[in-house]
Amino acid sequence: MSDEPRKINCDEAVRKLFEYLDKELGASDHAAVEAHLHSCRSCFSRMEFDKRLRGMIKGADPASAPDPLRERIKKITERF
Q1: In a domain, 3, yes or no
Q2: Looking at the 3D structure of the chain, how many domains does it have?
Q3: Closest to 29 (Cα-Cα) out of 53, 8, 48
């Protein structure tokens, strides 16, 4: 058995990105996504954007969002 992670394409890497950032992937999938991010500038940039956005959202004061924005976000999240 090889110690190298399996190769994945950009679609699979992006689909697994949130689980990767949340450390919810198994060891094999984590290694595959990590290897892909090391070799794909586009997916790495996407991961960095998502990571920074999460940090900004986490540090934001929820009371500072205007009501129309809160309603739009609520509607979007209810679909998931």
Answers
A1: no
A2: 1
A3: 8
